[in-house]
Predict the structure of Trypsin-like serine protease.
Amino acid sequence: MRSTLLRFAIVACACALMISPVFALSGGSPARTGDRLTRATVFITSLTPSGKNRAQVGNCTGVLIDRDLILTAGHCLSDLGGPSLVVAQFFDRSNRVVGAIQVASGAMHPDYAGRASADDPKPELLGADLAVLKLASPAPADRKPIALADDPVAASKVASVLAGAGLRRPADEGSAGQLRVARVASEVVTDGPTAVALGVAGGMICRGDSGGPVVSSAGLWGIVIAIVRKKSLCNSTVFMAVLDPTSRGFRTMVSRAKKSS
């Protein structure tokens, strides 16, 4: 059984993290051209009206789990806050964004209740920070969905990498949009169908990489949901939602996304 101290630390960190902006990978290495992670990962860009003649632009990372379905972090969808234009962009041979397909609709994990608060953190549900986006048309033929790991907890114990296309330089808003990867060593720290893993990445996680996929040789087992913040918006310590494709909540989310229009 996990220690009370460890659980307290998780809750305390999560309460602070889940009210923070979305994050991205700074550092790491350029993704390898044409490998399974590169072909499956997408860059999500949203445009949301925020006032008269004004709009807010947001970015997240996501991963294809079917020809027209993208898995990402739930707060990437809930943060839109109203009618928005959302597109998924793919990567060229230089791992830069190219082409785009509009997102037609999406579905949240049914157990995701929004960002945690100090009054009601619900630590057992933090791993429900997931959403599935449905594309208006299937991804290009050269893009290949990535398979989910049958046993995500076991998959997390194998050498893993995470991918993100957010800011490569924390202070440079123009540095987003190039897919990069970094190794991550992790440990699953909560139990159940909405488990969370805590990891340390070989690169800094900053704005734009929420929803980034975490994979090992066993398949896709995690999605980046938050970082452990210090004084800056970047850090290498990251929280990941552990994916359980057999759970009721996950299956409900995917089913709703498939039926949505």
Notes: The chain has one domain: 4-259. DSSP finds five helices and 14 strands in the chain. The longest helix spans residues 4-17.
